[in-house]
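TA notes. Do not distribute before section.
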Amino acid sequence: MTRVAIKPDLLRWARERARMDTLDLEARFPKLADWERREISPTLKQLEAYARATHVPVGYLFLPKPPDEPLPIPDFRTAGRAVPRPSPNLLDTIYACQERQAWYREFAQVNGQAALGFVGSVTTRTAPVEAAARLRTALRFSVDERRDCRTWTEALRLFLDQADALGVLVMVSGVVLNNNRRRLDPEEFRGFALADELAPLVFINGGDSKAAQMFTLAHELAHVWLRISALSDAGPASTPTNATELWCNQVAAELLVPLNVFRGELIADEPLAESLNRHARRFKVSTLVILRRLLDAGRMSRQEFFRAYEEEVARIASITQGSGGNFYRTTVARVSRRFARALIESTLEGRTLYRDAFRMLGIARTETFNEFGRSLNFNL
């Protein structure tokens, strides 16, 4: 039996990088403590299994020392708190989205698609009200456009569809690819934007509440209009010190609930619960966004806002969530309809290898791929 001499530092690095409990790993690898003490070395098969368990490329375990893994995009998460080493789930999600974006960019170039004029069309010197108006017009996401939506969750679906129709690849997932055992932590990040004039991409952490996702989508779209890629954790209650994040938050709030319209809808001395529900129905946004606008309108102090926000988050979390739903609809949401249709079309025409399409979709079998294509109205 051939054993592989591996430096204990690399084994510990892989465990810590994966944020896995030592006891959980030792249940799968009973000799882990012995490996880390160099009392015995793992076999190559054991090492490969350990690499899979900790989501690390096995080649990394043969390096002379643990590698640095900087985030591949700027980190605009909340300043003032310690941002830990990025998890493998976050890194792998960014890498997967970068691969999809690069593929779609080439697809767009081959098909002669024009650059999208809205990407980079504003700067942080643009007034948030003006920038929000531009986004609202381009996306057709005005209050009037949302009028026919029955609920704000239906309005969120409309928002996603309109961004996709405009040319933005909007991907919403709470897991890495289709691996439900690798869940994305909204405490680590809420979303990110990969700005590009041909293939702008926005990723929304589907592990976050739907109430938070609408604001995240608006925030990340503001990044696209700026043409600034970044990782974010901004939400309606956040107060970023980063000037770009602060601007994007202001644009997101104004896009969803125009303050001049909102002020005209306010009723003096209306109980908070009634105000939240009435405005959520009127503007088709979550009650969390309405709380943010009540603060912006001067109707509550910051102390009152944060107390009410925490209570509302708890109330929303207590509501039973639905099931994961249809696999094919979920996959479309995870990769975006625009990207999925382009990839299937290219694969069926022989311009993209099936193995590459499977990897980017997180699909393992030809039958699943074909059924996915049929769900998007391809004749297979």
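Switch to the second chain here.
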Amino acid sequence: MNSLALKLLLCTNGSAASLPALEYGEWLATLARSPSIILGIVEQPSRRGAVEAEAERCLRRLLEARLEAEVRIVEGRAEHAITLEAGRGSYLTVVGPLGRSSLRRLALGSSFRRILASVPTPILLVPCVRLPLQRILVCSGGLSYALDAERLAVSLASLTGASLTLVHVVEPVTLDYPLAREVEAHWKSLLATDTPQGRNLQAAVKVAEQAGMSMDTRVRRGSPVREILREMRQECYDLVAMGSAYSSRSLRRLALPNVTAEVAEAALCPVLTVRAGSTTGPSA
């Protein structure tokens, strides 16, 4: 049974930077017994042989594990090809850095940010392989859309026995209104407050408890990106799960930094991003 209820989309453009995503995707497919599509993207004709070879090697290993898998080779820009294929099903898209030069990133921006903006289903960015999976960090903005990321993280933890830690960062007050003042005054005991953030944190703990798992909770104060990265460095997590900023429908997300993308691009471990409403729960 596919306990993640998702098909995996394993992506490579043949660059060395993209290969950890294939390795991690193979491990995840074997763990969850998930069917997989191996998407090989030929961005330059001279790279076709390398792309096809890596995709076929991945396919062979998955078939040897008696898993459902197939290869699809497409031509074009990787970001566009991944977006098109991801839009065809309820995938968990597993992708690594695409080996872009610093000059290209400066001119065109981050490949991952474009994928994050255009793919509505869960994405797992794999800059490097961190196995065994023993410690998972779930990042909460105190908003309900982070719960879908947590549900998928809980599914992974239940499969691997990994421990779960929930971190919430309280930002310094910039607007003076009663709710902001209450959160500011009680940030150390936020979980016990009857604020929207407190209630959402309580709901997050309940998700883990309903799956028969415990969850350590930590509240920090300061810049979300800085504090999340500090937590990651201090505790050495194997995977980080975050709600995607694109879950938010408000204008607020257009005016503030994309915390999800900034953390993912700086992380030295796989980062799972999930928009609210994605298919993330375990199958019945």
